[in-house]
């Protein structure tokens, strides 16, 4: 599994950013969603962009955000990709990709086989689909440490590049990859010691579990 890409999401301070870079993760996720315990504003995004530079790609995470919010984050965080984790339709994804000239990752909330099939609607609009667990109404749309039935992705072959998220941890990531063949894995709460507090040791354990598998 040496070539599986790794995203550590919800990076909100320098130690977490250093941990993700030092561990060898490919992507750092910056959450621009105020209800999240991992939310950051433009100032912190700029500091994290300055600190990380070209050493890791930065993915900005949004939930049904407007153009101004996204534009501010793109400029401050010098983002390399946009992750849309709300109810954004294919047309919105395509519009944002054209407006900002950045790859768009669309999160797909999964609780059934039909949810997995729905990802195809984003062909031609998004650059990657990220399968994440559907979360209970009234809770965060992600970042809840919840997983879905990974067998729904067994032998998955869609037209877009894809990734797996939701409830992944250092202990289960090798199994998740073995069961789904995921070419990219994305983790937030699974590498934290408390909500929003990334643990560099858990980040390192997660990356080595992917790399050595
Ligand atoms: O991380 C968050 O706080 C968050 C908030 C709102 C939407 C998405 C969020 N994170 C994304 O959700 C997945 C799964 O999280 P977890 O690993 O189960 O905690 C995460 O990889 C982010 O892409």
UniProtKB/TrEMBL annotation:
This is N-(5'-phosphoribosyl)anthranilate isomerase. Transmembrane segments: none annotated. GO terms for molecular function: phosphoribosylanthranilate isomerase activity. The keyword Amino-acid biosynthesis applies. It comes from the Bacteria. It holds the Pfam family PRAI. Keywords: Amino-acid biosynthesis, Aromatic amino acid biosynthesis, Isomerase, Tryptophan biosynthesis. The gene is trpF. Residues 6-208 form the N-(5'phosphoribosyl) anthranilate isomerase (PRAI) domain. Belongs to the TrpF family. InterPro entries: Aldolase_TIM, PRAI_dom, RibuloseP-bd_barrel, TrpF_fam. It catalyses: N-(5-phospho-beta-D-ribosyl)anthranilate = 1-(2-carboxyphenylamino)-1-deoxy-D-ribulose 5-phosphate. Its EC number is 5.3.1.24. It comes from Croceicoccus marinus. GO terms for biological process: L-tryptophan biosynthetic process. Pathway: Amino-acid biosynthesis; L-tryptophan biosynthesis; L-tryptophan from chorismate: step 3/5. The keyword Hydrolase does not apply. It is an enzyme of class 5 (isomerase).
